[in-house]
Every structure is written in C-alpha cells, then in structure tokens.
Design goal:
313 residues; alpha/beta; two-stranded parallel ribbon; 38% helix; binds 2-acetamido-2-deoxy-beta-D-glucopyranose; signal; Conidiation-specific protein 13
Length: 313
C-alpha cells in the first residue's frame, strides 16, 4: 500500500537506534484488520476540516534570506531557493513567538491554507512543531497529498487542502517524541503500545501498519477527533476493535494532558528556539538583501569545524 503520509522514518530511525535496536525492525502485524479500509482521512477529514482555527497574523520575510531549514528543504525538493517565501505566522494563542512557515512558489497549498489548517491543531499540540512548509508534489508521488513530520518539522507535499487529518497526524509524531515520549525517543516504540495492539483485532487503517509510530499517530488523530468533533465510540463501524489503543491515546493526548483538545483560553507554554537564517545566494547578496547574514556556505563551514573539533577532542 502506498503510504498516505511519507513517514518520519529518518528521524525515528535515528532516535530509535540510539535507544533500542529491535524497535525499528517490526511493525503492527499485517494480520490486523483495518478500522478505516479506505484510509483514516476518508472518515475523519470532513469533521476535522470544519474545526475552528486559531486566528493568526502573517508577516512575510523580505526576499533574500530564509530559515536554513527552508533553504535546505528547497534544495532537497528541487525548488529554486530564490522562489521560496517565508512567513512568520503568529497565532493569537501564543505570544512566545511565531511559527515560521515557508513554501515554494509552485506549491499547491497557499500560505493561508497552511496557517489555517495547522491552526486547527490545539496550541498545546501545535507548540511542539518548529517549521511548517509546503512544496510541489514529487514526480513519483502517487497520492496527490503527502506529508512528513521529521525532526519536529512538518512538510506538506502536493494537494493537501481539506485534509486536516494530515496536520494532526504529523503533529502526533512530535508529541510521540517530546510531549508523551521523552527527549526525542518515540513513546510508541515501547512495549506498552505493542501490547495494546496485540490485544486489539484492528488498527486504524492500512497506513497504521507501516510502523508502530504511524499506528500511534493515527490513533492520536482519532483521539483529536474524539475530543473536538464527535465521540469516536459512537462511529460506525465501531472502534471497539481497537479499544486498547484508543483508550490509551485518548488518555495521553486528551484526558491526562489536553495536547489535542482545544480548550477555550489555552495558550502556548513553550516554543522551539529559532534556527539559523541564511542568505538565498549571490543574487540576494548582490541585491543587498543579506546584510549581516551569513551566506549558507559560511554556516556550513562553521558546522564542519564544529564536527571536526569533536573528532579531535
Ligand atoms: C519573524 O520572527 C522573528 C522571531 O520573533 C523576528 O526576529 C523577525 O524579525 C520576524 N520577521 C518578520 C518579517 O516579522
């Protein structure tokens, strides 16, 4: 099955390897049935799309500089870095700083779509994500919308309007590593989640079978639906085939800690620190748009020096 969301495998593999060597090699048993055989989005998107979003203001960065994350991502996606727009999106429920978003000019998802859909995720969950970005779909992408959540950054690839479940799912990966799990280690790779899946006869959908973290992120998306749209236990077919997973996910992100439950008056209590700002390149430098900003080459050199120092220490 083609993944609906590109997975955060790189980030997860790195943290999982540091922790345990068994976790990454297995996934939920393929014999489990699927609660949503046509994919979770087909069931949950209309309800999640209709959620209110936190109001925001938008400040576009002057052409010439970019967050290094956006610069690197543009290179990786084959987007001309001079055609990347960056914005500070400041949500009214977070006064600790903006969420920085960027998009390639050819991305089908516009900046207001991005800010609106991400703003549907309650602030206590949203605050665990650093950058949000939108890009054209890749040439070999089969699903018109794909996304990933890697290193707490969300990438949206292709036609992802009216697919709010994608944002909840990707925020789920950051919660797995930082808010429910600790210090970057995914909670869903532990024994507790495996045991729950073993006790249940189904998982959320086909994509949930690709790894334990994907199955957890899908259950968290269902928990968000439960908390903000409609009691999930009232849906047909019943979710009782995955009751052990749902009870845990609802406890983790709704009842014990309202990470995915919108509560009136909620505000952020943390953000990730800003990362480096880089110059788009020689044309921007020549246009005088990069005064006081290191060229990306200068930053890469500095990073290389740090690494070399570590080797010599
Ligand atoms: C974006 O936010 C950062 C961090 O608060 C700030 O330093 C910068 O001036 C802002 N840029 C724009 C264009 O608002």
């Amino acid at each position: 099955m083609i993944p609906k969301y590109l997975s955060a495998l790189l980030a997860l593999t790195a943290s999982a390897l540091a922790q345990s060597t068994t976790s990454t090699t297995s996934a939920p048993p393929s014999t489990k049935t699927e609660w949503a055989p046509n994919g979770l989005g087909a069931v949950l998107d209309s309800g999640l799309n209709g959620l209110p979003h936190s109001p925001y203001t938008k400040d576009k960065w002057t052409w010439g500089t970019l967050p290094k994350f956006c610069f690197d991502k543009a290179k990786a996606r084959g987007c001309d870095v001079y055609k990347v727009e960056a914005y500070n999106i400041t949500y009214s429920d977070c006064n600790l700083g903006p969420t920085v978003m960027c998009r390639c000019e050819d991305a089908p998802v516009g900046i207001d779509d991005l800010a609106t859909d991400f703003g549907k995720v309650p602030v206590k969950g949203r605050q665990w994500v650093r950058y949000v970005s939108a890009w054209a779909p890749s040439g070999d992408q089969i699903d018109p919308c794909a996304a990933d959540g890697s290193d707490n950054n969300i990438g949206i690839y292709g036609f992802c309007n009216n697919k709010a479940s994608v944002y909840f799912h990707e925020v789920g990966h950051s919660l797995d590593s930082w808010a429910v799990g600790n210090s970057g280690s995914a909670w869903s790779l532990g024994q507790d989640w495996r045991d729950r899946i073993n006790l249940d006869s189904c998982v959320a959908d086909g994509y949930a079978k690709s790894s334990y973290p994907e199955s957890w992120a899908q259950a968290v998306t269902m928990a968000a639906y439960h908390a903000n749209v409609q009691n999930i236990w009232t849906l047909q077919p019943t979710v009782s085939c995955m009751a052990n997973q749902m009870n845990k996910a609802i406890d983790q992100v709704v009842n014990s800690n309202p990470l995915m439950k919108r509560v009136q008056g909620q505000t952020c209590n943390r953000i990730w620190p800003a990362e480096a700002t880089v110059c788009m390149g020689p044309e921007a430098e020549a246009a005088g748009a990069c005064a006081g900003i290191s060229g990306v080459q200068a930053i890469e050199k500095a990073e290389k020096r740090t690494v070399e120092k570590r080797f010599f220490a």
